[in-house]
Amino acid sequence: MNMLDGRLKAVKHILCIVGTRPEGIKMAPLIRALKREPWAKVTVLSTAQHRDLLDQVLVLFDIKPDVDLDIMRENQQLPELTARLITALDAKFADLSPDIVLAQGDTTTVMTAALVAFYRRIPFGHVEAGLRTHDLDNPFPEEMNRVVAGHLARWHFVPTERSRANLLREGIPADRIHVTGNTVIDALLDVAAKEWPLDVPLDPSKRLLLVTAHRRENFGEPLRAMCRAILALVERHPDVEVLYPVHPNPNVKAVANELLGNHPRIRLCAPLDYAPFVEAQKRAYLILTDSGGVQEEAPALGKPVLVMRVETERPEAVDEGVVKLVGMDEARIVAEASRLLDDPQAWRAMARGVSPYGDGKASQRIVQVLGDA
Ligand code: UD1
Ligand code: UDP
Question: CA-CA 20 to 30 A from 37: which of 160, 217, 283, 371?
Answer without folding.
Answer: 160
